[in-house]
Hints:
The complex is a heterodimer. Chain A has 2 domains: 2-50 and 238-383, no CATH class; 58-229, no CATH class. Chain A has helices at residues 2-12, 15-54, 81-84, 127-130, 146-152, 198-205, 231-234, 236-274, 276-284, 289-325, 349-371, 379-383, and strands at 58-60, 77-78, 91-102, 108-115, 139-145, 159-165, 171-182, 193-197, 210-211, 213-216, 227-229, 327-328, 342-343. By secondary structure, chain A is α+β, with helices and mostly antiparallel strands. In chain A, helix 2 packs antiparallel against helix 8 (236-274). The two termini of chain A are 30 Å apart. Chain B is an alpha+beta fold. Chain B folds into 2 domains: 1-26; 31-252, Lipoprotein localisation LolA/LolB/LppX (outer membrane lipoprotein receptor (LolB), chain A, Clam). In chain B, 17% of the residues lie in helices and 46% in strands. Chain B has helices spanning 2-23, 33-44, 129-133, 138-141; strands spanning 48-58, 63-73, 77-84, 92-96, 99-104, 109-113, 142-152, 155-164, 173-179, 184-191, 197-209, 212-222, 229-239. Chain B has a 13-stranded antiparallel β-sheet. The termini of chain B are far apart. At the A-B interface, strand 3, strand 6 and strand 7 of A face loops of B.
Amino acid sequence: MILDMAFKNLIRQGMRSLLNVLVTALIIIAIIFALSLLNGFQAQALRNMSTTDVAGGHYRVPGFDILTPTEWEDLTLPVPQALRHLPHSEKAEVLVQQGQLFPNRRLFPVQLRGINIDQSLLDLPLHTLKNGRMEIGETIPVVLGKQMAKKAHLTVGDTVVLKWRDKFGAVDALDVRVMDVAPMINPRIDEGVVWMRLDHLRQITQRAGEVTWVAVKRPVGPVAGFEFQTVENLMADLLTLLKHDRRNTRILWFFLIALAGISVFNTQILNVFKRQKEIGTLMALGMTSKKIIRLFSLEGILTALMAIVAAAVLGVPFFIWFQGVGFDISHLSETGFPVREKIFLDIKMAEVVYSTLVTVGIMVLMSWLPVRKVARLEPTQALRGRAIT
Amino acid sequence: MRNFFHLKFYGLILVAAVWGCLTAPVGAQEIDPDRLLVEIDNNMWSDTKFVIGRLVIDNGRRVRTLGVETWMQGVTKSFSHYKSPARERGTKMLKLENKLWLYTPQTDRKILIAGHLLRQSMMGSDLSYEDMLEDEKLSQAYTAKLEKTELLAGIKTLVLVLTARDKTKTYQTRKIWADPKRKIVLREQRFAKSGKLLKRIDFKDYFATGDRLFPRRMIFRDMLKDNTQTTYFFDEIKFDLKIPPKYFSLRILKR
């Protein structure tokens, strides 16, 4: 009977109930959207890092840190025996050196990255280098990322002077030819990076057989002279950033929930105030305070349940549409995030259920809190509408 | 008619002789290139040296002038103190052996210039910090070979190709235009291993100071850049003076 009454009351409140349901539904949609968008962003960033740079971890020369370029130039070693036999699909040998490019006769410090051109572990758009010759002619073939090419004002076919130092410290310079300007999905391997064949970089720097690191599909145990850097280590900065982002999303989540709670709380206070005579009548007819509280609380619960249905009706088509168009975040790639162009939602069911349950729980709590004062009402005062002033 | 032919014949011989004098490595048989290099070093280098000078840096867009005082001891120790402009005043640079420290009063810190930083432009000039470290006696670091003779600004010079004695030298090849009479260098070119020209230095307005000849200015050009040049004016120079050891101590790198 109470359920029937609660439902009828809800319908009778018309626009007020509808607005409550809609606000709550939109908040549920917004929470799921924000969480799923962050998931999508995180998944793409980690995937891009993994497929273009990190793979399953790096065997690095001890002491090498990509963020301290003034110190790492001479941190190269011959490829260890334990990694030599790995097939090209399971390892990528990389040599990193410093260089100076002179596009339009301006100085442009760059990182020279030589990668074994036969490797297939990392997904890099360097196929134009594969077709080149092993011997260095008058120019060295290189590939640039789009961002790098844009900043250096270089295009395919351009020839520009590159200066570097060899293993012994002697300065050398030669023209490099831009064979391709390739879209890199990871800006960390794009901006300031000049890609060339590993054999070419080894040859010009006199570092025959040497590498800075070997990216592997999976760890092969300890390797003498090298230290293994796990995926977590290599992505530590990114993971920390994402952790902060998740915390920020939680703050947003909290505000949205608070907004929904305040909305229901406000409605319930208004209900109790405006429906004093109804409460007095129900009491006069013999309904206990507890039952009246239950009735009002049930109205709040029904609002929350209807909001879930509305969220499903409005949210599902919206999410389907969104997955088709994505969210343009190309501007973020300039800040160093390994993401490009668009991200898509990564909806996790556990998060959806959890968020919905928490929202409903808050709604129920907010429905119950204001109507507690019904228990203290005098039926005679309530009938005259003077119990709450 | 016969006399005319004789005249023509002797004339040709005379022209050939003059041409030979100008183009052939004149006096090459008497001049040992390595010996000449030693004599050039003897003229330029002394145990100690103090210079008050100006670095005029023209980067193609604007010209900056830095006032600098430099104390040098041998080839391994050097201390520079920048006096002007206001922005650079108090900046100090200390070279000890193959290490270079930079002190800026704004940060009140001394920085060891190492690795990649060495290749950066020094104070926006055409010189790199590495070039500062490379300041050394040519005769000790290079072997010389006479390439040709050439007229440079009306002076007959010997063009010597210098090859580094060991492979750790930044510039494996240099070329100098030396005046064999005055034992001075008029021009120097520094090359990459590949043979690409990287730097050019012109030594101008030699003047006598004591028993030496020293250039009044040196013009540095980074040949990989456009429209840039750095001129080092030597306004005052003193040789073989006593320099207190504190000038070559890290303790001097403070306000």
